[in-house]
Amino acid sequence: MASQAEAMNTVCPVSRSLDVTGDRWSILILRELYMGATRFEEIQIQTAATPQMLTTRLKSLESDGMIERRPYSEKPLRHGYHLTEKGRAFYPVIHALRAWGETWCKSKDEGIAVNFVHRACGHDVGVSNVCPVCKVPVERKDLDSSLSDKYAHERAERRAAFKAK
């Protein structure tokens, strides 16, 4: 990741955005936060990042204003990680990566990994950001999610393998 000074050497918004989020680990951390994970261990389990890598990326995302730490335990002192307004605003990028990946990076017989249902009308939105039934643009806050059995099993296996270490 580029330093703040290096990022300012261009007015290109794509380049500047990549300076904040342009690596695999940052994107996967943000995915986990959107999925509801807040604790270091759970984020580590589901991203497969080393503790050092995860610590570095969490600090970077925090310094860039994408996430904030909040204590959830005093003794011992432990922090959870939460999206800020800036971090929540990044969700359309994650959604676009998800839609592209569902369309182009897997076979049709695999099915969709995460199903999203529009809370207002109860219909599945597929990989769209517009409800196909009521034609309303939807954001993450408008959707209920459920993991496919295969994806839920994959995540559970990661958790079990980590706990067995």
Automatic annotation (TrEMBL):
The UniProt keywords, alphabetically, are: DNA-binding, Transcription, Transcription regulation
Record-linked PANTHER family: TRANSCRIPTIONAL REGULATOR, MARR FAMILY, TRANSCRIPTIONAL REGULATORY PROTEIN
Tagged with keyword Transcription: yes
Output the Gene Ontology terms for molecular function: DNA binding
Q: Which Gene3D superfamilies does the protein's record reference?
A: Winged helix-like DNA-binding domain superfamily/Winged helix DNA-binding domain
User: What's a Pfam family in this record?
Assistant: HxlR
Ranges for domain HTH hxlR-type: 12-109
Q: What's the name of the protein? A: HTH hxlR-type domain-containing protein
Among PROSITE patterns, the record links this protein to: HTH_HXLR
